[in-house]
């Protein structure tokens, strides 16, 4: 085997390889000889088929397999000999028109970059400092009560906060339009799911009342066929119901898994869950900043081949998610190009993480993984059974091992960056903006 390596760019390389044809022919002969022992050809017993017939019937496929295997093995051997770390997949092409008694081909590929982590001492990371207050527990329980609201029918006119069940028919220029008709349609006044003019028309009506009113759809209305147009609606109220919250009693507590029915136990359980969620939010906020600081401090070129692979995977995952939500495959037109920017960021961060983990020996320790599994298991009714389930198969621990590694890297970054505690409230941390 003869090889030569060329540098085409910062990461791109071209490997030229030549393998003696005689070696390939020898391997083809060996494989055909092994195949002849079991080949089945009409008119001959197994193992008695003439080699000429074996070569005629199986030769082309065997030759193709040998050449493919030879190219792959030769490339792998050459890469190891050159001590190269190949990023992605090589583009292998045969050299046509050569008559040197050798199979010659080229492989163009990228190598992993040399990752250098810079100084993190100037990076500033804000660490939220917050706690769960009794008022947060009360607010959460009030939310749970609202989720179990029942509606009692009343004879009075509909007011804000009440639910009116209505029939309506809408027309534009005297013609009914799609989506403009409904029967037994519930409207919670003040919820904001309907246009303000529609809620205003329902307000003050009681069961049996009918009203005709007009309204103009907003110019930016999501239904383009009616956007900006004047519509006339005929509205009939079937019933009006007022919300009734369930009492905070033993029955309510038991509905949320509190066997004792003690409201105090329910509040303690809610407090525990909120503290767990707050801890996760704070960790996520800090981790996001720490990883961003790490990526910013690292200088290296990102292999395009890895970005291509990640963009393709992201597009496929998104398409699969949309299809699970009911979209047809033909309607999901996602291309890797849409995800390229995010893919590059993910690949770059992954390379920086790998370098820090390797250089600083920040691999996950068994006790770290166990602690994470136990922590998550506490949110289930049978924590011990959940822990046992995760340890039944090693692959079930992969996610926790990755989290432990990330936690180690975050701690490593925090030890070098400027960390500033920032007072926050539970409510602030629970809003999407806080993440």
Task: State the main characteristics.
435 residues, alpha+beta, Alpha-Beta Plaits, Trigger factor, domain 2, Chitinase A, domain 3, five-stranded antiparallel β-sheet, four-stranded antiparallel β-sheet, 13 strands
How is this structure best described in words?
The protein has 435 residues and is an alpha+beta fold. The protein folds into 3 domains: 2-111, Trigger factor ribosome-binding domain (Alpha-Beta Plaits), CATH 3.30.70.1050; 124-131 and 275-434, Trigger factor, domain 2 (Orthogonal Bundle), CATH 1.10.3120.10; 150-244, Roll (Chitinase A, domain 3), CATH 3.10.50.40. It contains 12 helices and 13 strands. The strands form 4 sheets. Strands 7, 8, 9, 10 and 11 form a 5-stranded antiparallel beta sheet that branches. A 4-stranded antiparallel beta sheet has the order 1-2-4-3. The radius of gyration is 34 Å and the shape is extended. The mean pLDDT is 91.
């Amino acid at each position: 085997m003869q090889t030569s390596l060329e540098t085409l760019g910062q990461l791109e390389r071209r490997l030229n390889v030549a393998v003696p044809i005689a070696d390939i022919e020898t391997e083809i002969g060996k494989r055909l000889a092994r195949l002849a022992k079991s080949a089945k050809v009409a008119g001959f017993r197994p193992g008695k088929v003439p080699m000429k017939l074996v070569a005629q019937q199986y030769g082309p496929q065997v030759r193709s397999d040998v050449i493919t295997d030879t190219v792959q093995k030769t490339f792998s051997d050459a890469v190891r000999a050159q001590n190269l770390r190949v990023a992605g997949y090589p583009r292998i092409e045969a050299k046509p028109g050569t008559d040197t008694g050798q199979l010659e081909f080229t492989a163009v590929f990228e190598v992993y970059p040399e990752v250098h982590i810079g100084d993190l001492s100037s990076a500033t990371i804000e660490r939220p400092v917050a706690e769960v207050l009794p008022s947060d527990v009360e607010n959460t329980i009030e939310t749970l009560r609202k989720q179990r609201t029942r509606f009692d029918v009343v004879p009075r006119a509909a007011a804000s906060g009440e639910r009116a069940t209505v029939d309506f028919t809408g027309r534009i220029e005297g013609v009914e339009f799609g989506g403009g008709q409904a029967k037994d349609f519930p409207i919670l006044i003040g919820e904001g799911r309907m246009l303000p003019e529609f809620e205003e028309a329902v307000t003050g009506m009681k069961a049996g009342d009918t009203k005709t009113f007009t309204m103009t759809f907003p110019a930016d209305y999501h239904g383009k066929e009616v956007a900006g147009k004047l519509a006339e609606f005929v509205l009939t109220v079937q019933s009006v119901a007022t919300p009734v919250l369930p009492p905070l009693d033993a029955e309510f507590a038991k509905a949320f898994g509190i066997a004792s029915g003690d409201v105090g136990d329910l509040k303690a359980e809610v407090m525990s869950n909120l503290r767990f969620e707050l801890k996760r939010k704070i960790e996520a906020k800090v981790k996001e900043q720490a990883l961003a600081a790490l990526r910013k401090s690292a200088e290296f070129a990102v292999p395009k081949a890895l970005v291509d692979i990640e963009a393709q995977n992201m597009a496929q995952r998104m398409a699969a998610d949309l299809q699970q939500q009911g979209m047809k495959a033909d309607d999901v037109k996602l291309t890797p190009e849409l995800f390229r920017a995010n893919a590059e960021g993910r690949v770059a961060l992954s390379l920086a993480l790998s370098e820090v983990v390797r250089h600083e020996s920040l691999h996950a320790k068994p006790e770290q993984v166990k602690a994470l599994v136990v922590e998550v298991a506490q949110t289930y009714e049978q924590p011990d059974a959940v822990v046992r389930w995760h340890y039944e198969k090693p692959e079930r621990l992969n996610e926790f091992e990755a989290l432990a590694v990330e936690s180690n890297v975050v701690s490593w970054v925090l030890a070098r960056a400027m960390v500033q505690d920032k007072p926050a409230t539970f409510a602030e941390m629970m809003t999407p903006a806080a993440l």
